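ingest -> validate -> predict -> emit
validate: passed (alphabet ok, no gaps, 205 aa)
predict: started
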Amino acid sequence: MARIPGRSLWLSAPVGLVCAAVVAALVWLAAPMVPTVVTWAGDTLRAATARAEAAAPDDPLVAALAGEAPLDCRDIYPDDLWRQLAWFPGALLAQSAAVPETAAPPLVEALAPDIRISCRWHTRDGATLQTALATVAPDAVAAGEAALRAAGFACTAAAPGTTCSRTAGDFVETHVFRDGWWLVSVEGGWHPEDYAARIAARLWG
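emit:
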């Protein structure tokens, strides 16, 4: 290595040794703090991860069900089911506040529902899917269940809700009562797998 002009070897060697000694002393003094720093860093990272996992993702359904935002058909369908319906050849969606065409007309009078959203899909060959979500008075549920049983529906009560369903020919009709809500789905010639159950899981899963 070429020598740098003006550098004194007899002076630079002791200075280098002193610097090395200072660095070694600092390392020796800091060594007891290493486990503490590692623990602090680990706790900080774990806490940040826990907060990120605990924070619920932005979901418009939460605000819509709380009455803080308008409810849209897109909100009540899980992503996979929405894609399945939206990409079905020739499928069209109409959104409204209409009551689906139920096989138990007295039910609607008994429930006096406040329809929050009604979604009707139809295809070119006439197949339909109708789903509506409404609020109902808690004391109206018993009358609604009685009307459904009288129309031939089979009902099962599993806390905190009640589900009634009936299959007649190519029509499948499902009603779910839960927490002051009424979810009704009517499948006419179009039967996506677990259609009504997947929507219920999206709402209350």
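The longest helix spans residues 9-30.
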